[in-house]
Amino acid sequence: MTGYAELDEQTQGELLRPVASDGATRLGLDVTGIELAHHGYNTTYRATTPSREYAVRVLTNSHSSAAHLEAQHAWMHAIARDTDVRVPDPVIGPDGDSYAVVDGGPLGRPATVVAATWLPGPDVQTLAVEHARALGATMATLHAHAVVWRPPQGTSLPVFDEPLFGDEDLLTGHPMPAEDAALIAAALEAARPAFAETSAAGLIPVHADLHGGNLKWDGTRLAVFDFDDSGLGTPALDLAISMFYLRGGDDGTDDALREGYASVRPLPHVSEEAFEALVASRQLLLANSLLAASTASLRAQATEYLGVTVARLRSWLETGRFTRALPS
Prior knowledge:
alpha+beta; Phosphorylase Kinase, domain 1; Aminoglycoside 3'-phosphotransferase, Chain: A, domain 2; five-stranded antiparallel sheet; two-stranded antiparallel ribbon; globular
């Protein structure tokens, strides 16, 4: 029998539909229709009920524990209550939990399912200058709130104090040319001091995945979703992660992100060398995550992306500045 990871993307999405539906029902939703919205690192369905629509997510590749999920959802509730940042409202099931564990069917293991209200409008995807400036201000608002918010008792968030965020290191030892393996090892070693330098100021809850695919825009302000990657990190790390996705060209979005942030609270105090290392560490994390992914489209990208990773990291180590846009 073909394992789940070897199936094509469409088949994976269809096989997980009843898993999502079962989870939604256990969370108390009266689902009248459910359709695949996004099959990536996790798998999200757009579920219709008699009263409204919800995003129902099967945590296909997520590392979030029950304690992490409860903390993530508590933070989302607090953000909606205490700030003007638009976020989805997580669904709390009849048993008081904000997640359901169901038969994972094709996954071959129990599956965790979460749900939240559906945010209307298209995803931003590629950030223009106005989006980048709004993202900076939104991020700063989240950081200002996170400084005083604490996860409820009995919940927790993962700690991001090293380049791979505590994930298993699949890069080291992965089959590749010796020169490439040495470069990956050098990049990991070069990135670690930046985490030590910035973490000295203390860790706060951060979203840790603020890019265009996790944002919606209503014409005046952003909405933020997908808190599955959130954890305890530094404001500088959160800013560097978003900066990673803007390093594809020279269109002013870098400056706009910083300007937006500074309009709400002072920019994090971090050396330029350490900040560039934090930006580059995102490349390491993504490459490592692809090697572990079970989603068909992500697995298909892993080998090619590893080559891209080596090229980008080589450029960073040689120039001191990370960019995703390399000469052809």
